């Protein structure tokens, strides 16, 4: 699976707004709603393996950057992942 394959699969997922964290707007997709459980695990593994480490309060997660969104998992083992998260990417500063 390559980056484009992963982005296509992520785009096909059903995304839900995380109502419990309105101050940190993001969405999540459930493994139970994705048809192919093994492919979901592959996508989670790809996110963990190809993401860039970023701090979130005291924890560090690997964030996989797509075009419009960044994606992350919260489990240490991608095989255990039930939720994939995404948030809009912050626009990069323009150089003058």
Commentary on this structure:
This protein is of the alpha+beta class and 96 residues long. The chain has one domain. Helices cover 25% and strands 29% of the residues. The chain has 2 helices and 6 strands, in the order H-E-E-H-E-E-E-E. It has helices at 3-12, 37-50, and strands at 16-17, 27-30, 52-56, 59-65, 69-72, 83-88. It has a 6-stranded antiparallel β-sheet with strand order 1-2-6-5-4-3, with helices on one face. A hairpin with a 2-residue loop joins strand 3 and strand 4 (59-65). The termini are far apart. The model has no long low-confidence stretch (mean pLDDT 91).
Record the SSE blueprint:
Blueprint lengths: L2 H10 L3 E2 L9 E4 L6 H14 L1 E5 L2 E7 L3 E4 L10 E6 L8
Antiparallel strand pairs: 1-2, 2-6, 3-4, 4-5, 5-6
Question: Alpha-carbon distance between the termini?
Answer: 38 Å
Count of the domains: 1
Largest sheet: 6 strands, antiparallel
Total helical segments: 2
Q: How much helicity do the residues have?
A: 25-40%
Radius of gyration: 13 Å
Class per helix and strand makeup: alpha+beta
Strand content: 25-35%
| Bulk shape | globular
Number of strands: 6
Q: Uncertain regions: pLDDT < 50 for 5+ in a row?
A: none
Mean pLDDT score, rounded? 91
Strand order of the largest sheet: 1-2-6-5-4-3
In brief, what are we looking at here?
The protein is an alpha+beta fold and 96 residues long.
């Amino acid at each position: 699976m390559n980056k484009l394959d992963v982005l296509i699969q992520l785009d096909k997922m059903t995304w839900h707004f995380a109502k419990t964290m309105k101050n940190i707007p993001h969405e999540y997709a459930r493994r139970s709603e994705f048809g192919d459980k093994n492919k979901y695990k592959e996508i989670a593994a790809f996110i963990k393996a190809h993401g860039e480490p970023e701090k979130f309060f005291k924890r560090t997660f690997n964030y996989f950057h797509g075009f419009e969104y960044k994606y992350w998992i919260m489990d240490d083992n991608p095989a255990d992942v039930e939720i994939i998260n995404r948030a809009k990417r912050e626009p990069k500063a323009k150089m003058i």
